[in-house]
Amino acid sequence: MTPMINTLTRLPRRQIALLAGFGSLGILLGAFAFQAAGYAPCAMCLWQRWPHAIAFGLGILFALTRFGFIPPLGVLTMGISAGLGLYHTGVERDWWEGPTSCTSAGDGLSGLSGMDLLPSASMDASLVLCDEVVWDLFGLSMASYNALASLAFVALWIWAWKSRA
């Protein structure tokens, strides 16, 4: 093994869990930064934030206590986050229908944009639909990136769970 890989494989469980937890904090901070930059979240985007907040707390709790049940909870939490991100990606790409409460496929919303649903054009708040991509990079939306990051965090939590260090 190379020295760097050898060093990484010997990381203590506590550091691995903190890496996963602070990774989730990074995702949350990124989401809030996008929101501050004017990209309002849809309902499904907000759903995806909760597992990251929980995972951050789990990372801190494990670093402080080393309770053995915490890494499996981290795996479960990030698995849920990955699932939500994949589900949201599918809704955005019209692979399947999303909740009618936040998509244009809802009763009477077909063909309408978020602005069409506002009572007046003078309002500065807008309704963000879950099936509309408001930002993408290399063809992947924020929901897609959340799913990928969450899968990486699943791997970190599994590593923390199985690590003997």
Outline:
Helices cover 59% and strands 2% of the residues.
What secondary-structure arrangement, pairings included, does this model have?
Layout: H1 3-9, H2 13-36, H3 43-65, H4 70-92, E1 136-137, E2 140-141, H5 142-162
Antiparallel strand pairs: 1-2
Helix pairs in contact: 2-3, 2-5, 3-4, 4-5
Find the count of extended strands (DSSP E, 2+ residues): 2
User: Largest sheet, described in full?
Assistant: 2 strands, antiparallel
Estimate percent helicity: 55-70%
| Helix-strand pattern | HHHHEEH
Low-confidence stretches: 120-124
Helix/sheet category: mainly alpha
Strand content: under 5%
Which whole number gives the mean pLDDT? Answer: 83
Essential attributes:
single chain, 165 residues, mainly alpha, two-stranded antiparallel sheet, 5 helices, 2 strands, 59% helix
